[in-house]
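Our working data are protein records whose layout never changes between entries. An example says more than a description, so a record of this kind follows.
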Amino acid sequence: MDFRHRTATGQASHGGRTPKRAKPLKRLAKARRARDKPPPAMAARIRNVCLIHSSLDSAFAGLGIAATTLDPPAGVVSLPQLLAGLPEPPDCVIHQEHLGKRVILTDVEAAPCPTLFWARDPHLNGFWQRHYARLFDAVASTQPQQAVPLAEAGWPRTAWITWHGTIRPFVPFADRRHALAFVGRITPHRRRRAWFAEHLAAAGLVPCQDAHGPALAAVYDDARACPNECIAGEVNQRLFEAASSGCLPVTERQPPGVERLFVPGREALYYDDVLELDEQIRFLARHPEAAEAMGRAAHAAVADRHLPRHRAQALLALAEAAAASPGRPATGPQTREALALTLFALWRAGHLPLGAPEIWERLSAAPPTPAVAAALLHTAAGLGSRDLYAHLAGACLARPDLRANPHVAAVACLAGYRLGDPEAARRAYAAFVGATGKARAARLDDPFDALVFFAAALEGAVRHAAPGTTFDPKQLVPDNAAECLIAAKLLRPEALEPDRRLAAILRRHPGTQADRVGLLSNLSLHRPGDWSLGLELALANLAAFRREPGVEEALVAAQAAMAQGQTARFARRLAAADPDGRLAAALAERGIVLPAKETAP
């Protein structure tokens, strides 16, 4: 395979497919044996690192660490083959997720040193990274809320190492032409962002969609504040890009922990919904001196805490901890399982151009765990082979642990329906019911019933949804509760139960407000007197930057509650969801005066 690597000096060198050579492989084997020796009492010292798809080589060099950056092409790449082309084995390998060039390393367990994976978009790629993380000694995540799931997936040594900014000159606010700036893609698939931009147009926001590098920095250099929207409640790079220019971030109060990056009210402003966002924008317009002071503070915070060298220091500390105390990454059969599930997840999502036969081969070589069994069933359905599916389903149902597993049972049953074998589907359902000891089982008359049943079973098994994936119910067998309900809705568009349950599942996932607005709107049309549902729809609208529809839905819900003599209940529910009283104030402007908030004696 052809690839380029550059040293910390920035000079590029060329490499290609490395032939088997005795000396490099002997060096790797010797270094591997040294790694496996008991660790010394003192902390390990990292002197040189191998970076894969990283721009931090200069930052490491500034710390006195020799750094070589490799840039392999997209696809599946053997780590030892990459390292064999280096002059000497590194003290650590750091694989940084590349958002535009998907690379999966194999043979990671053969590395002669600790290995780290830096997940850059785990909020959208956790569905495959939870398996991939098991191959490494340690994992870093740009998202604080993803550190725990990655640890639970197989490796407890994780760290929150997020995005970084750059050094930029500060432009006084008097010399900036625009009040607001936002650089980001707005597409029909990002309805919430489109509503965000549409709402802020009245405040003067003109989004920029195609700016990168110096052009992007110039946009924020020329604006005083950056309202920030997040795709899935994540810490995003825009936060640091704006702050680097001293363009004050006004960002969502998501995920929990984001306020540790920039001090609220001093280095950034935060909001929960469109009402609070509008309040913050009005404050900045009325207090230009305070806005500039906060912009300068955000600019200083980047220089003090959020530069590439700070992230390199954090990665280095994680690497040294891994070197001083060798961890427990996957080995042997566990390695085959983790890698096979990683590739399967990427293949199923259409993120890696691999063929079904190759995925089948990888999975067949892995230990037959429930996750592998479910993946094999998916792959059999993808190959369209009823014979292969029937053989595999029979083997799974013969194992007590597999037929009692909700994930395996769901895929076995739903794949049967997909392949036109309803009898096999019913056998999988009956086997699951029998294995789980249910005294009374619901009758499944058709695929819709099976989808609704297994949506509940998968939700109980904490397989709610897979953010970042796209699901086509006409092509794929459902793999989680949300996908079951999407497929059920396609079969019976008039059914309301899938909408209700899907809306409840999506409540757990930030960034899904646009979908929830659609689901809750449909439910409210059929239950116009349900003020509780109306209030939930109002809050979803406000979280999706739909101010007027949100206030209007809240008004209708309040009127329904009053007509039913439940004003006090409505007021309590509203106070819990609107603790600062912004929505209550908006209702008061429309003539709805609610009982005063109760206070503890």
Q: What stands out?
A: The CA atoms of residues 267 and 404 lie 52 Å apart.
